[in-house]
Amino acid sequence: MTMTKACRRFITPFLRVLALGATATATAVMAMSHESTSVLNLTLEAKYSNTPAFRYFMIAEAIAGSYSILALLLSCKGLLSHLVLMMDMVISMLLCSSISAALAIAQVGKKGITHAGWAPICGQVPKFCDEVTGALIVGFIASALYLLLVLSSLHFPVSSLPMTTKP
Q1: Is residue 57 in a domain?
Q2: Measuring CA to CA, which of 27, 35, 67, 136 is 20 to 30 A from 163?
Q3: Subcellular localization, per the record (predicted)?
Q4: Whether residue 167 has pLDDT greater than 60
Q5: 25 assigned to some structural domain
Q6: Alpha carbon 161 to its chain's center
């Protein structure tokens, strides 16, 4: 077995399993992130579904996780491998855009925007902010794993693998 074939056979599924674990973890942590607090007799409830960027992040992570399962079940040969490579790139871009949107909102929650009159909320709901931060870190790891999948597919293309023929 050549090195190229070994990398294609073992490294790619390993990266997919890691990416699946990261996307599933990010989705679960974001879905369970919530906290309530009282400020001046008003109840403030912080949860991911209150913010469209956090919902987008969670949905993108769930889509990437579902795709990882599908890609693990498919055998990558011929034209199908090119489709998987293109979908890996699409999922990478989806994850990057969702993380960017969620990070922007997380920054507003942490620091606020004083000239717009938006106060930071992380002082009132620190558990929620910590959970969101954890989900974003794991989501970033998932995005990096998909980038590695794309790079490994480009470096070890299926067409470079030796074809085996059976009599």
Answers
A1: yes
A2: 67
A3: Cell membrane
A4: no
A5: yes
A6: 30
Spatial distance between the Cα atoms of 55 and 59, rounded to a whole number of angstroms: 6
Region 77-98 average pLDDT: 85
Answer whether residue 17 shows pLDDT above 60.
yes
Q: What is the mean pLDDT of residues 53-57?
A: 94
- The pLDDT of residue 165: 47
Distance from the Cα of residue 56 to its chain's centroid: 11
Distance CA 81, CA 83 (A): 5
Crossing angle for the helix pair 126-155 and 12-31, to the nearest 10 degrees: 160
Rounded distance between C-alpha atoms, residue 33 and residue 49, angstroms: 9
Residue 110 resides in a domain: yes
Listed as own residue / partner, the contacts of 131-134 with beta carbons closer than 8 Å and 24 or more positions apart are 131/29, 131/30, 131/32, 131/33, 132/30, 132/33, 132/48, 132/54, 132/102, 132/106, 133/106, 134/29
pLDDT digits (tens, 9 = 90+) for 105-156: 999 888 888 888 788 888 888 898 899 999 999 999 999 999 998 888 777 6
Q: Based on the structure, what is the number of domains in the chain?
A: 1
Residue that is written with structure tokens 């969670």 in the block:
58
End-to-end CA distance of the chain: give it in Å, rounded. 19
CB atoms within 10 A of CB 118: 12
